[in-house]
Each structure stands twice: as C-alpha cells, then as structure tokens.
Amino acid sequence: MVKLDNDAITKGVALITGATSGIGLGMARSFAAKGYDLAINGFGDSIEIDRICRKLETDHQVKVLYSSADMTKVSEIETFVSDTITTFGRLDVVINNAGVQYVSPVDEFPTDKWDLVISVNLTAAFHTTRLSLPQMRKQGRGRIINVASAHGLIASPNKSAYVAAKHGLVGLTKTVALEAAEFGVTCNAICPGWVKTPLVETQIETLAREHGVTQDVATKEMILQRQPTREFVQVDQIAALALFLSSDDASSITGSAYSIDGGWTAH
Ligand code: NAD
Asked: How far apart are CA 206 and CA 187, in angstroms?
C-alpha cells in the first residue's frame, strides 16, 4: 500500500530551475513549506525576484539561494550547481523545470528558436543532471525530476521543437534512471497537460488574436477541449506530485513519466 505521509518526507536541499514564475515558483513554495532549503533561478525583475526569495525564507524559515544563471549557458549552469553544493553542502532534489515554447510550422520554424527551445527544455537538464549526480552518489540518495509535458508523450502540430525536446527529456529520464538506480538516485518525469501560467497565457492570446475570438473562447474551445476534465491542471497539484516523488515512499519509482493532464493522453 502506498503511504502518503508527508511528514515522513526527508527534507534537504532542492534546486529548482525556472522558479521565478508559474510551475517552478509553485514548486518552490511547496518545497519550502516542507522545509527544503532552495536553490532557484529564472528570469524576471530583480526587485521582484528578491522579494519572492525573502518571502519564501520568512514564510517557511528556509534558506533560498538565487542564481541568475541562463540555462542556455553551460558555464552559468556549472556555477549555479557548484554554488548550490558549496552553499548548502548537499543536494537532494533537482527539478529541471525551466522551459520555453515557440509555435510555428516546421518548414518556417526559425532556426534560432529551434536551438533555444532544445537548449532550455532539454540540454539544460542534461547539464544539471551530469553536474548533480556526483554529489547525490556521494550522499547515496537523490531525486531528479524533469518537468516534461503531455508533449513528451504525444505531439501537436506547430510545436516541433517543444515536442522533440520534451520527448527527448522523457528519454533522458529513463537513461539517467538506469544509470543512477544502484546508488539511491531516482529520476522521473512529470508530464503536465495545460496549466495556466505565463507560458500558456501567451498561447491563449495568440490563438485568440489569430482566430478573431475572445481569450475565453480560445481557452474553452482551443485549449481545454484536449483535456477531458475541461479544467486547467493546478500548479499545486504538480508540486504535490514532485514532493511525493522526492519522498522515501517513492524510492522504487524511477524511469517513469507521470501524466497529470486531466486525461489528455488517455485519448
Ligand atoms: P513560465 O513561463 O511561467 O516559467 C518558465 C520559467 O523558466 C521562468 O521562471 C523563466 O524565467 C524560466 N526560464 C526560461 N528560459 C530560461 C533560461 N534561458 N534560463 C533560465 N530560466 C529560464 O512557464 P511554466 O508554464 O511554469 O513552465 C514550466 C515548465 O513546465 C516548462 O518546462 C514547461 O515546458 C512545462 N510545462 C508547462 C505546461 C503549461 O501548460 N504551462 C504544460 C506542460 C509542461
């Protein structure tokens, strides 16, 4: 029987990429609420980011290290991970969450956008993983969680780079799981359907503009019609799954891709 005893969750240090917005910020709040110290990065207004970090610290009595690392730059990722290990002396959970989207037919897809989407959504996860594993191996325990997507399992038109990156991320997840299993490290992917974050709000605005409909109509008829529940997945629901995957109860779950998509991929 699966025991969902949140008090049994081992606390430690969680590195979460892209945690200044949307799903990553929600995960940062949920992990801090469980007592994890955090290492986070992501873009945004520096005053607002500072406010977010201080609030996480005071609300939950944890430490928060912020890095301005750009996930397309290998040297900045290297510094981010090594600063995290130096600051906290350990690293328990890595959540590869930073992501970007670009929508275009494949034959018109700008090559720089292709490179960007692959770099942030896939290559960055390779770098954080290769840099974190030695520390996790030393500790004999670790959790790597890759935020993929329903698009890591199925495709949609005009999202070639994103679908390729997210399928790649699910593949990376399985390989890392096989390599890391014997030293107590698990690696899993979470595959959300639609979540109402800035990444999706931009797509809703574009669809509404291109089809000459309101954003409400675009949301109901073009976005949520794929999700049988007809509801957005909530950030807190994804964070709860990530917390479970980080717990001792999830030690036998590795190499899995968890759908949390209101039934989208059941079609
Ligand atoms: P978001 O736009 O709200 O957040 C993205 C985060 O990534 C931000 O903090 C941003 O600053 C950061 N980021 C982007 N490029 C970066 C870079 N080069 N370097 C450092 N940080 C960078 O988006 P979100 O919806 O919260 O997406 C988070 C993850 O969830 C992404 O991987 C996305 O593909 C995935 N996802 C989202 C949905 C959805 O419906 N929103 C569905 C499935 C999967």
From this structure: 35
Catalytic residue among 36, 66, 102, 162: 162
pLDDT averages per 10-residue partition of the chain, 267 residues: 39 96 98 98 98 98 98 98 98 98 98 99 99 98 98 98 99 99 98 96 94 94 94 98 98 98 96
What is the three-class DSSP state of 179?
A: helix
Q: Which helix (H) or strand (E) holds 235?
A: helix 235-246
Handedness of CA 153, 155, 161, 164 (dihedral sign): positive
Please give the distance, rounded to the nearest whole angstrom, from the Cα atom of residue 96 to the centre of ligand 1. Answer: 10
Ligand 1 proximity of 259 Cβ (cutoff 6 Å): no
Q: Kindly report the backbone phi and psi dihedral angles of residue 64, in degrees, each rounded to the nearest multiple of 5, phi listed first.
A: -125, 120
68 lines ligand 1 (CB under 6 A): no
User: What is the amino acid identity at position 243?
Assistant: L
Q: Which residue bears the tokens 């990156």? A: 165
The verdict on pTM exceeding 0.90 is yes
Q: 175 CA distance to ligand 1 centroid (A)? A: 23
